[in-house]
Amino acid sequence: MAQQIQGQEKDLGGGFVVRRLLPAARQRSVGPFIFFDHFGPAREMPGVNHDVRPHPHIGLATVTYLFEGAMMHRDSLGTEQLIEPGAVNWMTAGRGIVHSERKPDHLRDVAFVNHGLQLWVALPAEAEEIEPAFSHTPEAAIPQIRVGDAEVRLLVGEAFGDRSPVPAASPTLYLDVRLPAGAELQVPAAEERAVYLVAGEVVVDGEHVPAKVMQVLDAAGGSVRATAASRLVVIGGDALREPRFMWWNFVSTRRERIVQAGDDWAAMRMGRVPNDDVEFIPLPPTAFTPPEPRS
Predict the structure, then answer these.
(1) Residue 106, SS3?
(2) Exposure string (b/e) for 117-155, b if CB count within 10 Å is 16 or more?
(3) Model-level pTM?
(4) pLDDT tens digits for 16-45?
(5) How far apart, in whole angstroms, are the C-alpha atoms of residue 94 and residue 117?
(6) Less Cβ crowding at N or C end of the chain, within 10 Å?
(7) Half-sphere exposure of residue 248: CA atoms within 13 angstroms, side-chain side
């Protein structure tokens, strides 16, 4: 059923605002997407940073996409990747990975704006324990498609007769769309879909959607019309076949796997990030109490 998700905002300090849309109380996932954070736009100043210290993941893939700014990704595989606007960075956690996200050294003494999205995708049940991996797809390799007056970047999946090179683990749809005022777009079909308005104003299937709100589409819907120049993203794909347990940075179809991951991180058995292993994010003080899985 179509519904709107307002999300919740949290200021991490210094005006760096993160807006979380998924998971929501009435909408735990959209296709394989189980987590949706919109951060910024936030002005980063010299002497101030919002570095994310090394921390672990299992059972998911993180998808990082910037509109503005930059960040440095490092992980326990030895990857060091500068993330810049327009590129898609897909990190497969699988059986376990540790990573950090920090202000790049060349930007520590300058002011700049950071603005982007970080999403999590639940891996298929049969792929939850695969080997971890990291894939960087540069901006120039992302298909750019003109659909009427709409400018579409095909970040992940297949749409409008084209395919993204990003290695998704299951049928997945992720688009970055710009619409001038008055333009319309029909969202490609998928089992589950949602539209998130980054900026502007749109009408989705007759419903007014303001900026920073997510509209979940029903099966027959998908008509988007811009009433002002707008930028939006579309997410979706095949629905999850099995419910997921989620706690902290861990996702699994099995309760006991979440417990094990917590024990492994507490004992520092999940690996270290080369050149970034002096500090780390500890487990939350509240232990995992297995709830019903999110579906």
Answers:
(1) helix
(2) bbbbbbbbeeebeeebbbbbbeeeebbeeebeebbbbbb
(3) 0.95
(4) 899 999 999 999 999 999 999 999 999 999
(5) 21
(6) N
(7) 22
